[in-house]
Amino acid sequence: MTNDDSSFLRLQARTQRFTLGTPRGFQVSPDGRRVLFLRSASGEDRQHILWRLDVETGEETRLADPAVLLGGDEELSPEERARRERSREQGGGVVGNAVDADVRIAAFALSGKVFVADAETGETRELPTGPSVIDPRPDPTGTHVAYVANNALRVVGVDGTGDRALAEPAGPDQAVGVAEFIAAEEMGRARGYWWSPDGTRLLVSFVDKSAVRRWHIADPANPEVVPNVVSYPAAGTDNATVRLAILGLDGSRAEVDRGDDEYFVTAHWSAHGRLLIATAPRDQRRMRVLAVDAETGATEVVAEDADDRWVEIIPGVPAWTSDGRLVRVAVADGANRLVVDGKEVTPPSLQVRAVLDVSADVLFTASADDPTQVHVYRWTDGDITRLSSVDGVHGAARGGDVTVLASWSLDHAGPRVSVLRGAEQVATIGSYAVEPPIVPNLHLMTVGDRGLRVALLYPTGHEPGTKLPVLLDPYGGPHAQRVMASRNAFVGPQWLADQGFAVLVADGRGTPGRGSEWEREIAFDFAGVTLQDQVDALFAVAEAHPDLDLSTVAIRGWSYGGYLSALAVLRRPDVFHAAIAGAPVTEWRLYDTHYTERYLGHPDENPQVYDRNSLIGDAPKLDRPLLVIHGLADDNVVVAHSVRLSSALVAAGRPHALLPLPGVTHMTPQDDEVAENFMLMQVRWLRNALGVSA
């Protein structure tokens, strides 16, 4: 390994995979005059700053700099650490903020303290509240800020006066105004309260986790430390219960009747219609949209979707248009289609990914015939316009007639951010991200009878005719794509290729962007379907690229990719000759309710399905090298998964390696030196396992 190789790994760690310094979290004022966004001061600075862009002049101004506001290091409460773990947030500083309706008052938390910034005057100040604050949010009028502290929901005036509790937990297992584990980890809901449009009331969740099983996550490297006790709703066990109530600043309260559905999915409260909530039963085969009477809490079903497998949660819906039409996304003709006032308004050729903004029209993202690309579209009565004009992966935010368009592409590293007024570019927002020092030697392909999307990376300067060991680098499961039209997605795999491998990344059935039938192929059969797609992708690519040496094939992955990697050497040793399984799910009865039961059903009703998809029973079959890696502080895929697999392998007399990572959560190590050595160790292990030289 050369110094250049190792310096890349340290740079990748310091830059958090070249994402630091990229602008994100755009919020556009309805008058189109300003844009608030988050960005660190450089591509190697982990502290994010809240910025303001003046659209007229193009000038960028710092509104909230943690270094100035704190005068020292940021201190995170356990609650804030948990929030960031659920969102996989690895940065620091202002990692999120909320704004009023005019995008003038922005509220955020630093070191458990509430700060507000006035985007017009540029003034930022701390409000006098108690410690351990999370999730502060101003009301739409910019008069009050609500926040959660010590599991109680409190409110304070924007001027710092009148701090008081609106609702407090009744016991240690209860919390007010927060998202429970399942909501934050699986449903994309990171919040537990919503302001009314006039700022006089709030919809509030009351969470009771007393029935949820307690798991203990210890730190074996520090035996004097008391284990962390977490409430983890494993498949087939009790979830937290969530009640909803509407609380008035005047002390009024109305309980919301949301029926018998176990899951509270999301809420929408705007001035254009009644309060909306979405709910689903435990089997997730139905989703109801309920309109709520804010005075009484009474509800009425205004829309319902059903599916014999599951109903997908799409970000940004339900919502009302400015003239009171209900917007949602539903499956029709095999596609996720935008539905307005009960009518599908997008064609089956578009797979809607997310709704970004709803006003008189609807701004949304979707994929057309190429799932590796995501474009921004606007629907107006009878018309659909694509706003992103170049190939790539795009996102957007909007206020009034101003749209901020962020574009990632294979043609450049990092994002390019344009500010559009109508169709005209009027400003840009700069990126400070470090440009990766390597360019992917990339071949994107569609292969096999199922049209699998794959990416093949050769070493830089590869000479055709030179045989290469193959390394599959998948995620391979639902909710995530690896093969995307973005250069940054392939920088890490290219480094692996430059170590002397042909690296193959394949998205199989179950991955998003290709319609409901494609996604539902994995129902009750994670193991069979997702592994077969990796095998088929490998053989199809090798047929077109004879430089791939099928006698030396390895696979590595993390999380679902870790499960897939261990599965590969256990069930297809004829194809795979070595595997590295990082944080793998090995026994699905140990994973959470919402995710696992969605795809495999309830374990009491489908025990054979869980047995068939578990790795534990396959332990006696192992006759290939397997390295299992797991963070001991992981509270998502707990280390018991790897320990149970290792125990079964030992009992069967099957040699393997188990590498525990003290203090590491579900996210991989981020310290420069540790991250470097972590990857170098894996490459050395793979070479030894495959019997290939550097």
State the CATH architecture of one domain: 3-Layer(aba) Sandwich
Fraction of residues in helices? 10-25%
Instruction: Compute the average pLDDT.
Output: 96
CATH topology of one domain: Rossmann fold
Shape field: globular
Concise structural overview:
This protein has 694 residues and is of the alpha+beta class.
What would you note in describing this structure?
The protein is an alpha+beta fold and 694 residues long. Among the domains are: 175-211 and 239-313, no CATH class; 442-690, Rossmann fold (3-Layer(aba) Sandwich), CATH 3.40.50. 18% of the residues lie in helices and 35% in strands. The chain is built from 12 helices and 44 strands. The strands form 10 sheets. The chain has an 8-stranded mixed β-sheet, with helices on both faces. Strands 1, 2, 3, 4 and 5 form a 5-stranded mixed β-sheet that branches. Strands 14, 15, 16, 19 and 20 form a 5-stranded antiparallel β-sheet that branches. Strand 15 and strand 16 form a beta hairpin. The N and C termini lie close together (8 Å). The model has no long low-confidence stretch (mean pLDDT 96).
Walk me through the topology:
Elements: H1 3-14, E1 24-28, E2 34-40, E3 47-54, E4 60-64, H2 66-70, H3 78-87, E5 92-93, E6 98-99, E7 105-110, E8 113-118, E9 124-126, E10 133-138, E11 144-149, E12 152-157, E13 164-167, E14 174-176, H4 181-187, E15 193-195, E16 201-208, E17 214-217, E18 228-231, E19 241-248, E20 253-255, E21 263-268, E22 275-280, E23 286-292, E24 299-306, E25 319-320, E26 326-332, E27 335-340, E28 343-344, E29 351-358, E30 362-367, E31 375-380, E32 383-386, E33 393-399, E34 402-408, E35 416-421, E36 424-429, E37 442-447, E38 452-457, E39 468-472, H5 491-498, E40 502-507, H6 516-520, H7 526-544, E41 548-558, H8 560-571, E42 578-582, H9 593-600, H10 607-613, E43 626-631, H11 640-651, E44 657-661, H12 672-690
